[in-house]
């Protein structure tokens, strides 16, 4: 399992008799952590989920452990369905993969500290007060001059 630096909040859903949490954070590692938490909450093996999603066990493990980018949308949906997620819950997990994948590609040229900061801002965005955002914008404008 990979770890994200900050968790803003999680949505939970019921799959069978288990309650599992889907992270809605949009920072790197959130998808891998979400599928790990869901899989272990359901007491499924990596190979069982991978087989059901028609993926190699190695590829699935790399995704779950953040050694690979989150998969494309269709593959993420197959993983979600293999984890027993349906409807909005499956779509939310696939969207998390899309968001994380796009952020990783767009931010790949940035230094790691900046990428981490951007991830933290993305995940905290709904909670940031307008005065804080304005102060942060002023600091960034000052640095750029």
If you compute it from the alpha carbons, what radius of gyration comes out, rounded to the nearest whole angstrom? 17 Å
Tell me the structural class. Answer: mainly alpha
Largest sheet: 2 strands, antiparallel
Helix and strand run: EEHHHHHHH
Task: Say how many strands there are.
Answer: 2
The N- to C-terminal Cα distance equals 41 Å
Q: Please count the helical segments.
A: 7
Order of strands in the sheet with most strands: 1-2
- Tell me the β content: 5-15%
List the uncertain runs.
Answer: 3-11, 20-27
**Overall pLDDT level:** 82
Could you say how many structural domains there are in total?
1
Task: Give the helix proportion (percent range).
Answer: 55-70%
Tertiary shape: elongated
Provide structural commentary.
This protein has a two-stranded antiparallel ribbon. Strand 1 (10-15) and strand 2 (18-23) form a beta hairpin. It has seven helices and two strands; from the N terminus they run E-E-H-H-H-H-H-H-H. Helix 1 (30-41) packs antiparallel against helix 5, helix 2 (46-52) packs across helix 3 (57-64) and helix 4 (73-82) packs across helix 5 (87-106). The relative contact order is 0.16. The longest helix has 20 residues, at 87-106. 59% of the residues lie in helices and 8% in strands. The N and C termini lie far apart (41 Å). The chain has one domain. It is mainly alpha-helical and 145 residues long. It has helices spanning 30-41, 46-52, 57-64, 73-82, 87-106, 112-124, 130-144, and strands at residues 10-15, 18-23.
């Amino acid at each position: 399992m990979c770890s994200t630096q900050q968790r803003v909040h999680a949505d939970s859903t019921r799959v069978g008799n288990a309650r599992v949490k889907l992270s809605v954070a949009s920072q790197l590692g959130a998808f891998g952590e979400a599928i790990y938490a869901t899989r272990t909450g359901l007491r499924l093996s990596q190979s069982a989920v991978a087989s059901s999603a028609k993926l190699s066990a190695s590829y699935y493990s790399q995704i779950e452990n953040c050694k690979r980018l989150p998969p494309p949308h269709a593959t993420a949906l197959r993983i979600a369905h293999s984890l027993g997620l349906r409807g909005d819950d499956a779509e939310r997990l696939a969207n998390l993969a899309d968001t994380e994948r796009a952020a990783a590609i767009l931010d790949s040229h940035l230094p790691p500290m900046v990428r981490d900061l951007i991830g933290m801002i993305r995940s905290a965005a709904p909670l940031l007060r307008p005065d804080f955002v304005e102060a942060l914008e002023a600091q960034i404008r000052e640095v750029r001059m």
